[in-house]
């Protein structure tokens, strides 16, 4: 990482500066080891929208995060940069959300995705979602080729598919495979949910179609349908679920969290991508998220799991943090938690890339 006058004068102990970058850091993508992409997109959200505002809210809150991380105190020095957000994304999200709402309202009044009246809206949303995937893929692939590690901040959980594709492609060139550690309240294994081929509820169904993905390990899930359970059961061990109810039962019966984390990590290969939906945490950490579910991991449990993963010898190839939806009050909590979880993901990822 090369320095410049901005980085040379930067002090991690000074007041955070709102410079438009995550954590107020002064690095450009050309001089940072890790680059964050933003995807302000929530077109297919099926309950409460608002996650499109997540990236900017996290940027705003992130200047309050102390840069000396307990797990990797000097990690920031390796460079965490903020890529420019593609200007097509935000206005397209706003426009296509209205089209998606037409479909959702039609279904909620007894209609079907096969009805001719919905064909145009579905086609428009699906085409827009695929364009988003291509934009993120192109950005991520360019950065990966340049030797950067890439993280993505959503937006809803449909947004990281392009990054996952780029990671898979980069591994294919080396003949390597990877696993996904998926922290979430939902299994996200539905096929074309509500007719949307790239739904937030379908991200892991789509990820399983990536040829280099050898294992999907899901943690904290507590809302899933019969088809999702069947897909996991019939995956031949490719999908492994540590659902919230089993984790809680184990804890109630005396099994400590360290032992449970070891069992989770044991299922993962050497190369790992982390997909972190904020609703995998208990709702007191993320009350504004689009589809909150009672239960979930505490913030400390999630950090412990990620830290133990980083110390296991595995390499974190990339990650996403999604579904942070800020509230409209003056005491914003969702973005505060999101910014701190994002910083943990950044530092722990860098720690595995030494």
Q: Structural class of the helices, strands and pairings?
A: alpha/beta
Give me the side-by-side strand order of the main sheet. Answer: 2-1-3-8-7-4-5-6
- What does the radius of gyration come to? 19 Å
Sheet having the most strands: 8 strands, parallel
Q: How many alpha or pi helices? A: 11
SS strand fraction: 5-15%
Poorly predicted tracts of residues? none
Helix content: 25-40%
The end-to-end distance, rounded to whole angstroms, is 13 Å
Instruction: Report the order of strands and helices.
Output: HEHEHHEHEHEHEHHEHEH
Mean pLDDT equals: 94
Subunit organisation of the chains: single chain
Structure notes:
The chain has an 8-stranded parallel β-sheet with strand order 2-1-3-8-7-4-5-6, sandwiched between helices. It has 354 residues and is an alpha/beta fold. Helices cover 39% and strands 13% of the residues. β4, α6 and β5 form a beta-alpha-beta unit.
Please name the defining characteristics of this protein.
single chain, eight-stranded parallel β-sheet
Brief characterization of the structure:
By secondary structure, the chain is of the alpha/beta class. It has 11 helices and 8 strands.
Give the helix/strand layout.
Layout: H1 5-9, E1 34-39, H2 54-62, E2 80-82, H3 89-108, H4 116-145, E3 149-154, H5 161-172, E4 178-183, H6 203-207, E5 213-219, H7 226-233, E6 239-242, H8 244-252, H9 257-266, E7 271-277, H10 299-310, E8 315-322, H11 334-351
Parallel strand pairs: 1-2, 1-3, 3-8, 4-5, 4-7, 5-6, 7-8
Helix pairs in contact: 2-11, 3-4, 4-5, 9-10, 10-11
């Amino acid at each position: 990482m090369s320095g410049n006058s901005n980085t040379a004068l930067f002090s991690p102990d000074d007041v955070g500066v709102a410079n438009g970058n995550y954590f107020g850091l002064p690095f450009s993508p050309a001089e940072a080891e890790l680059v964050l992409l933003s995807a302000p997109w929530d077109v297919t959200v099926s309950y409460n929208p608002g996650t499109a505002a997540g990236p900017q809210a996290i940027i705003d809150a992130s200047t309050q995060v102390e840069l000396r991380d307990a797990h990797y105190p000097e990690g920031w020095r390796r460079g965490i940069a903020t890529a420019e957000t593609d200007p097509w994304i935000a206005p397209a999200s706003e426009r296509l959300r209205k089209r998606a709402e037409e479909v959702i309202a039609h279904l909620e009044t007894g209609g079907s995705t096969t009805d001719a009246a919905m064909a145009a809206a579905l086609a428009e949303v699906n085409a827009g979602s695929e364009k988003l995937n291509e934009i993120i893929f192109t950005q991520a692939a360019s950065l990966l080729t340049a030797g950067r590690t890439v993280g993505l901040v959503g937006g809803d959980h449909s947004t990281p598919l392009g990054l996952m594709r780029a990671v898979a492609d980069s591994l294919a060139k080396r003949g390597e495979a990877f696993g996904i550690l998926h922290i979430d309240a939902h299994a996200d294994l539905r096929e074309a949910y509500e007719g949307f081929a790239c739904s937030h509820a379908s991200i892991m169904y789509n990820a399983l179609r990536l040829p280099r993905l050898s294992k999907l390990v899901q943690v904290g899930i507590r809302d899933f349908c019969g088809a999702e359970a069947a897909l996991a059961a019939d995956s031949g061990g490719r999908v492994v679920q540590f659902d919230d109810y089993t984790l809680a039962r184990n804890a109630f019966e005396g099994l400590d969290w360290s032992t449970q984390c070891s069992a989770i990590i044991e299922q993962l290969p050497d190369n790992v991508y982390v997909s972190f939906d904020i609703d995998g945490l208990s709702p007191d950490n993320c009350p504004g998220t689009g589809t909150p579910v009672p239960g979930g991991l505490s913030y400390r449990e999630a950090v412990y799991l990620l830290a133990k993963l980083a110390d296991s010898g595995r390499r974190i190839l990339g990650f996403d943090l999604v579904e942070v939806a800020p509230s409209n009050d003056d005491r914003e909590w969702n973005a505060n938690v999101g910014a701190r979880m994002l910083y943990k993901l950044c530092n722990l990822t860098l720690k595995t890339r030494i």
